[in-house]
Amino acid sequence: MRVGRYFHSVTLDAEKCKGCTNCIKHCPTEAIRVRDGKAVIKEERCVDCGECIRICPNHAKVAVTDELAELSRFRHTIALPAPALLGQFGPDTLPDQMLGALVGMGFDEAFEVALAAEAVTYAFRRIIESGEAPGPRISPACPAVLRLMQVRFPSLLDLLIPIEAPMEVAARMAKKQALARGSLNPEEVGAFFITPCPAKVTAVKQPVGTHASCVDRAISMAVAYGEIRKNLSTASPVPLRATGPGLGWGRAGGEAMALARGTVLSVDGIHSVIKVFEEVERGRLQEIDFIEAQACVGGCIGGPLVVQNPFVARVRLRNIAGQHWAKTSLFTPAELEAEFASGAWHMTRVVGPRPVMQLDDDVQRAIGKLKLAEEILDRLPGLDCGSCGAPSCRALAEDIAREDADETDCIFILRERVQVLAEGVVDLASKLPPAIRAEKKKDGEPA
Questions:
Q1: How far is CA 348 from CA 145, 207, 417, in A?
Q2: CB atoms near residue 47 (< 10 Å)
Q3: pTM value?
Q4: Which residues are within 8 A (CB) of 56 and not within 5 positions of it... i.e. 6 or more apart?
Q5: CA neighbor of 296 nearest in space, from 310, 279, 285
Q6: Would you give per-residue pLDDT tens digits along the chain (447 residues)?
Q7: 61 vs 59: CA distance, rounded Å
Q8: How many CB atoms lie under 10 A from the CB of residue 329?
Q9: Which of 98, 113, 252, 298 counts the highest number of beta carbons within 10 A?
Q10: Which residues of 88-115 are buried (b: 16+ CB within 10 A; e: fewer)?
């Protein structure tokens, strides 16, 4: 849903939320607070990684995706299956059958995102070999990682390879082919991405690196899986055109295998990605040429919207990629070079940081609030227990400096103040007004 300046696929079902604080402890960008017994998502910090969806025991965090009914809005519809979709089915389901059943859901055709991954791999290779920027180049393919960099690692944005993700490239290629047939207008063609994660839904609704997404809608892979299963026995097979290097993009390490150049570091799981990026910030990974970073453990096959066990899906996808590794690519080297040289796959907007860490829009007030936050932090226990509804004592100190919280939100400070107040009440209870003290003296009682 859209909240303020930002669209978010990850949203909260307040009725199911119990205020348990599990989500605030696992959010990689400290985007969640618990207020009045309910979780609150800070929209400017959320990167839609889906970690809160995985960790919530009450299923209060959900991903909002598009419905299949949206197909009726377009005269010609194109399914864009992510490579991870192939890993959702057992060995008894051939890729050709799966693609045929996908079309049987109501799409006019399917264009494999793995095909675009082959083209994007070529672009990555060309840019890395050019040596245009010092330090390791970072893949922009995972939208959650891209937004993580905007929020927590803005100093690394210059290391991003300025090429659009395969999802966007696939939509552009597919629409170009459809329109070349001459019977359709651009607004009549709808591209539907079959997504394994909420971050890609957000990338469709509010893209980074481009002014507008070529993808029109994003359908949950879990929803598509059920519909595909219904159509497997009746649908006509559609030949799989992608080769192994493109298909491998659906799992962690797939980009690195497809690239097959230089020294490559592959990291998956957003908290592991953070640790690697911290190393890059310290300048300790200069020997690395390329970093493949994916927010989900296992890569896209581990997304929150998949149905298959990611370890099983990894084996299945690896086998399929291996079977098609030596297949001749749909694209010739000359075609790839021409497209790359034309800039067709390049980002059209600079990816800049999000102004989320500043305490105030005014610099002088921000400096004052930073000093105040440091003073407050010194008074806090430093336990990062989460009982206050913030993920850490530092986060609480910053919230207090912004006047979004109070020091007594900390249970330890609250207990201290209650104890002082209780001792004061006891002390006051032992005191008597002067008139009463004088009367008791007359009676020979101690005053």
A1: 19, 11, 56
A2: 29
A3: 0.88
A4: 22, 23
A5: 310
A6: 444 578 889 999 999 999 998 999 899 999 999 999 999 998 889 999 999 999 999 999 999 999 999 999 999 999 999 999 999 999 999 999 999 999 999 999 999 999 999 999 999 999 998 877 667 999 999 999 999 999 999 999 999 999 999 999 999 999 999 999 888 999 999 999 999 999 999 999 999 999 999 999 999 999 999 999 999 999 999 999 999 999 999 999 999 999 988 899 999 999 999 999 999 999 989 899 999 999 999 999 999 999 999 999 999 999 999 999 999 999 999 999 999 999 999 999 999 998 766 677 777 888 898 899 999 999 999 989 888 999 999 999 999 998 889 999 999 999 989 999 998 888 888 877 777 665 655 565 555
A7: 6
A8: 17
A9: 113
A10: bbeeebebebbbbbbbbbebeebbbbbb
Backbone torsions φ then ψ of 273, nearest 5 degrees: -60, -45
Place of tokens 């900390």: 410
Is the torsion defined by CA of 199, 44, 145, 389 positive or negative? Answer: negative
Cβ neighbors of 138 (< 8 A, separation 6 or more) are 145, 149, 156, 159, 160, 161, 280, 290, 291, 293
Structural tokens at position 405: 């919280």
DSSP label of 160: B
Token pair listed for 14: 């307040």
Do 83 and 240 contact (CB within 8 A), yes or no?
no
Asked if 104 and 231 count as a contact pair (C-beta separation under 8 A), the reply is yes
Q: What is the set of domains in the chain, with CATH numbers? A: 2-63 (3.30.70.20), 68-342 (3.40.50.1780), 363-429 (1.10.15.40)
Calculated CA dihedral for residues 125, 127, 129, 133, nearest 10 degrees: -140
Q: What letter does residue 161 receive in the DSSP assignment?
A: -
**Cβ 347 vs Cβ 210: under 8 Å:** yes
C-alpha span between 99 and 107 (Å, rounded): 11
Q: Please compute Rg for the chain using Cα positions.
A: 28
